Amino acid sequence: MSNITQGSLNGFISETQNQFFNLLNREMKFDKEVDSWLFMSTPWPVFSILAVYLFFVLIYGPKMMKKREPFNIKTIMMAYNFIQTVYNCYIVSAMFITPGVSDYLKNYVCHPDETENSSLLIRQFYSYSWHFFLSKVFDLLDTVFFVLRKKQSHVSFLHVYHHVNMVITTWTYLRFFKGQQAILCGALNSTVHMIMYSYYFLSALGPHMQKYLWWKKYLTRLQIFQFIIGLTFAVSLFFYDCSFPRVFAVYMIADVTLFLYLFVLFYKKTYSEKTKSG
């Protein structure tokens, strides 16, 4: 009896694996031009960057800074925050400046038009996705600056997980799935980051700016709102049976749900405790 049960279980697991990999093979999309772009041909450069990042911010950096004074990198940070603001602004504006984007997303958000008529626009979507991925690589410098300024308490699990996860997710999406629907989530995320880096730029100007930065907690609320929108969108893509990779849709739902939970916890811990102590 136990042999029959074990055999049935093994058969079920094997069949589930076969169905999963068959689904994955059907949904993956490859493109010689896109897959040859910087960082896209192989995962090793991205994994190497993330490995160096994790080693520095979690091990080597804190040890190096233990007996040192914090680095004065105000000018570097201001330049970085300004560049990030402009870069994210470029990603968002390019989408809406490009002719036909709004009409395409309005008419084909669920079932993309992949005919020759939309080929040039789709190439533009791929280009936006690549720039979006690259912005996530640049985001890693946030943590490096925390370490160099001896603000290791800012290097939380949420912070590090968020940065690493976004690099892996955006690379995987563009390398293997290349759907156009997620462009909307990318535009929303870049808008949030444009506002966020504007805040960081103003904050880096000095203590005299703090009285103008009362809207910091609303920035966190905006990030939470972003995850709610993203989760709703991912669920809609899945349950309306849109032409979007179902494997990636399920991943997005799980991933954004976790982000939403972690950011809500962060918000409660940060601002509820401040209210109580105040």
Descriptive report:
The chain has one domain. It is built from ten helices and no strands. It has helices spanning 2-27, 44-65, 74-97, 101-108, 119-139, 141-148, 157-177, 183-203, 216-239, 246-277. Helix 2 packs antiparallel against helix 7 (157-177) and helix 3 (74-97) runs antiparallel to helix 5 (119-139). The longest helix has 32 residues, at 246-277.
What's this model, at a glance?
Helices cover 74% and strands 0% of the residues. The protein has 278 residues and is mainly alpha-helical. The mean pLDDT is 88.
Topology:
Layout (H helix, E strand, L loop, with lengths): L1 H26 L16 H22 L8 H24 L3 H8 L10 H21 L1 H8 L8 H21 L5 H21 L12 H24 L6 H32 L1
Helix pairs in contact: 2-6, 2-7, 3-5, 3-8, 5-7, 7-10, 8-9, 9-10
Supply the key terms.
globular, mainly alpha, 0% strand, single chain, 278 residues
Strand content: under 5%
Low-pLDDT regions = none
Please tell me the total number of domains. Answer: 1
What is the share of helical residues?
over 70%
Biggest sheet features: none
> End-to-end distance, in Å?
66 Å
Tell me the number of helical segments per DSSP (H or I, 4 or more residues long): 10
Task: From the alpha carbons, calculate the radius of gyration and give it in angstroms.
Answer: 21 Å
- Helix and strand sequence: HHHHHHHHHH
Rough outline: globular
Q: Helices and strands: which structural class?
A: mainly alpha
Mean pLDDT: 88
Please tally the β strands and state the result.
0
